[in-house]
Design goal:
single chain, alpha/beta, Rossmann fold, 7-stranded mixed β-sheet, 7 strands
């Protein structure tokens, strides 16, 4: 009996072969990307490239699937690789401790991938991924804002130019139009962002507990959004579902 037997009942053998032969890059494996990775691994994807330079922090435990008390202080990509291999030892996992930006983009040949997931939260990095993927005709799906949200049922899959409400999507529409990129599949929420409470007693801004060696501490971040266990996880699972659908339907 194959561990993917229940999946094959729905997809069929040919689709499972496509997934096994596919190589997917996931940029950012936090609250959204981590759940996408989990679903891809449990769906039989053959090769996963994980790109994230962050370490697991205590404040990640409320929403990130790779975060436990035992993994605090470890690199997310290392923890993810170990978990993936515990799910399926045959999956090839390439882990990169890298913060993807224009100055690090040359490290990655995006033409090697069957699909790309953009689950990072910096506009500059997102635009660089999308621009390069589009130039190579490599399929890419991008997650818009998942922070400061409470309604997991408000997520939608759409082209970026059909989005509404989401502040990040508005910025991305503007910047992508300037780049001449006129289509992009995204997952976004139509829920108006909640304004987080400003409580200095629990704020990472004043009580940063990032593990030693963390490159981008909370104290230097422009915004520290509120989050929870049930919103970013849904976004990640929707993204994984879209990627699997795209690969198996081609």
């Amino acid at each position: 009996m194959d561990q993917y037997a229940r999946t094959e009942l729905l997809f069929g053998k040919a689709a499972m072969e496509k997934l096994r032969k596919s190589r997917i890059a996931v940029f950012g494996i936090g609250g959204v990307g981590g759940y996408a990775v989990e679903a891809l691994a449990r769906s039989g994807v053959g090769t996963l490239d994980l790109i994230d330079d962050d370490k697991i922090c205590l404040t990640n435990l409320n929403r990130q699937i790779f975060a436990t008390h035992q993994t605090i202080g470890k690199y997310k990509v290392d923890v993810a690789r170990e978990r993936i291999h515990d799910i399926d030892p045959s999956i090839v996992v390439n882990a990169y401790k890298c913060f993807y930006m224009p100055d690090t983009a040359e490290q990655f040949d995006l033409s090697k991938y069957d699909h790309i997931i953009d689950a990072i939260d910096t506009v500059t990095g997102k635009l660089e991924i999308i621009k390069r993927a589009k130039a190579l005709n490599t399929p890419v799906i991008s997650c818009m804002g998942a922070g400061n949200k409470l309604d997991p049922t408000a997520f939608r899959v759409a082209d970026i130019y059909e989005t509404k409400v989401c502040p990040l999507a508005k910025v991305m529409r503007h910047e992508l139009r300037k780049l001449g990129i006129m289509e992009l599949k995204v997952v976004y929420s139509e829920e108006k962002p909640v304004r987080p409470e400003e409580d200095t007693e629990i704020s990472c801004r004043t009580h940063c507990i990032c593990p030693p060696g963390t490159a981008r501490k909370c104290t230097v971040r422009r915004d520290i959004p509120g989050s929870n266990a049930f919103v970013p996880s849904v976004a990640g699972l929707i993204i994984a579902g879209e990627v699997i659908k795209d690969i198996t339907s081609n």
